[in-house]
Specification:
Order of helices and strands: HHEHEHEEHEHHEHHE
Structural class: alpha/beta
Strand content: 15-25%
Number of strands: 7
Helix content: 25-40%
Radius of gyration: 17 Å
Distance between the termini: 29 Å
CATH class: Alpha Beta
CATH topology: Rossmann fold
CATH architecture: 3-Layer(aba) Sandwich
Oligomer: single chain
Number of helices: 9
C-alpha cells in the first residue's frame, strides 16, 4: 500500500496480492483477523461519520475499511491505493453507489483543497520513509476541511511489535515485512510530534492489540471482552498505535 510521491520509495519492495487485506480480515488465522477487526472498529469510532461526510481511505488496499464506511449511504467514500491489483480486487468485490476506488499516488489526486471531511490512514505510514510521510500528511492537511480528522494506525515501537514482526518474517506467516514493506517505526511521542509539526492538533492517542488478538485463538468473545477492558484503561504498550488528529479551524 502506497500513496507517496513519485520521488523516493513509491511502493513496497515485494508484490502484495490484491486480495491480501481482504483475505487476512475474513479468513486469516484468528489473531490476524482480530487484529484487523479491532483496528477497523476503533478507527470507525474515531472518524465519527455524519451525514454528508466525504471520507478518504488512503492506502485502502483490498477496500475492506472503505466498504465498511460506505455501508452508511449518507456519506461518500473514496479509496485510493497505488497497488493496481488491490484496486482491481476492491472494484469487483465492493460495489456501492457512494463508494469509489482509484489507483493513484497521492500527488495524482485531482481533489480541491479542503474538500475532504475525514481521512483513514491505517497501517500505511510505516511503509513510508519519514520525510515521505511528512509530505503525505502535509497533503492531508491541505485536503481536509477545517475541523476535519485523520486517524492513523501504525505498529508501536514501544511494544512487543518488533518481536512479533521478527517472528512473522521468520515463520513466513505474512509477506516479508522488515525493509521490504516496513521502513519506519513510531512510538507514541514520535507520532504525535510528526502530526503536530505539520499543523494538526492531537485529539486522542491510544494503543490497541496488547493481549486481545492472541486470545481470539481461544475465543472471539473473550478477545472482545479483553479489548473492551484494554480500551477502558489507557495503556501505551499495545502493539498498534492509533492517533486521531484534527485540522484546527484557525489553521
Amino acid at each position: 500500500m502506497s500513496v507517496i510521491l513519485a520521488s523516493g520509495r513509491a511502493g513496497d519492495q515485494i508484490a502484495i496480492p490484491g486480495e491480501y487485506q481482504y483475505r487476512s480480515y475474513h479468513s486469516g488465522w484468528a489473531a490476524q483477523r482480530y487484529w484487523h477487526h479491532a483496528k477497523f472498529v476503533e478507527a470507525e469510532r474515531c472518524l465519527a461519520r455524519v451525514r454528508g461526510d466525504v471520507i478518504l481511505d488512503a492506502g485502502c488496499g483490498s477496500g475492506v475499511l472503505a466498504d465498511r464506511l460506505a455501508a452508511d449511504p449518507h456519506i461518500r467514500v473514496l479509496g485510493i491505493d497505488a497497488n493496481a491489483a488491490a484496486i482491481d480486487f476492491a472494484r469487483h468485490q465492493f460495489r456501492r453507489p457512494n463508494l469509489e476506488f482509484r489507483r493513484r499516488f497521492l500527488h495524482e489526486l485531482e481533489l480541491p483543497h479542503e474538500s475532504i471531511d475525514k481521512i483513514a490512514f491505517l497501517e500505511v505510514i510505516e511503509h513510508l520513509h519519514v520525510e515521505q510521510a511528512r509530505t503525505v500528511l502535509s497533503a492531508f492537511h491541505r485536503l481536509l476541511r477545517p475541523g476535519g480528522r485523520v486517524v492513523i494506525t501504525t505498529p508501536n515501537a514501544r511494544s512487543l511489535w518488533p518481536v512479533i514482526e521478527w517472528a512473522l518474517d521468520h515463520l513466513r506467516l505474512v509477506p516479508h515485512l522488515a525493509d521490504d514493506q516496513h521502513v519506519a517505526l513510531y512510538d507514541p511521542g514520535s507520532l504525535i510530534r510528526l502530526g503536530e509539526s505539520l499543523g494538526f492538533r492531537l485529539i486522542t492517542l491510544r494503543t490497541l492489540n496488547l493481549i486481545a488478538p492472541w486470545l481470539a485463538v481461544l475465543s472471539w468473545r473473550l478477545a472482545e471482552a479483553i479489548h473492551r477492558l484494554e480500551q477502558s484503561r489507557p495503556q501505551f504498550y499495545g502493539s498498534l498505535l492509533l492517533a486521531l488528529f484534527e485540522k484546527p479551524f484557525e489553521s
